[in-house]
From TrEMBL:
Protein's UniProt keywords contain Zinc: yes
GO molecular function: metal ion binding; metalloendopeptidase activity
Entry's Gene Ontology BP terms: protein processing
A Pfam family hit: Peptidase_M13_N
Organism listed in the record: Oppiella nova
GO cellular-component term (any): plasma membrane
UniProt similarity note: Belongs to the peptidase M13 family.
PROSITE patterns with a match to the protein in the record: NEPRILYSIN
Record-given protein name: Peptidase M13 C-terminal domain-containing protein
Amino acid sequence: MNRANNLDARFDKVQQDFYREIYGTKSQSARWKKCVDYVNNNMGMAVSALYVQEHFNSASKAKLHFESDKYFENVIGFLRNSTNKTQSKLYDEVDRDKWTVVPSVVNAHYHRYRNLMSFPAAVLQSPLFNKDYPNSLNYGAIGSIVGHELTHGFDSNGRHHDSNGNQRLWWHPNTIDRFIAKSQCMTNQYNNYTVRVMGEDHKINGILTLSEV
Ligand SMILES: [Zn+2]
């Protein structure tokens, strides 16, 4: 298991050299940003407490024991705890109402396996949403994001999943044919583009541009 990200600057430097050779990356995000991301990604619910005081479950934090001068040991303790938690869920029924995105993330998502959209508390803030804005501004800002997420239910990935998120052909065959024919226009258009990366021209693969992932 790679724990280089959790070790000190010596390991960080070796890792940076490695990525420079492999991917050509010249710079990487600041140390503080990596630390904030790490805590937010792994303890998002605790970090989000300020956003959603009333929903914050202090019991989940109480189970963890952290010490301010033992970062690496804290990471290992956290990993042990989260592995136990994940394994204990193996025989439980799937909780379809469980949030997959923490409240402090400024983003929105569509989950095709559950056919649902997530709008965390942090994305429902100015300038994207404000209860005092005129409706026109809210529709134009958060409204366009809601529309974007909604279309994922019908895009080249989402169309394979039905209203319960199960993978099933639920479109009429004529609709599928027309969808594929129209997609071909986009594929053709993007096949004609080239992108210059580190002094070299690369042809875009139009098929890969059809969805976000
Ligand atoms: Zn999207």
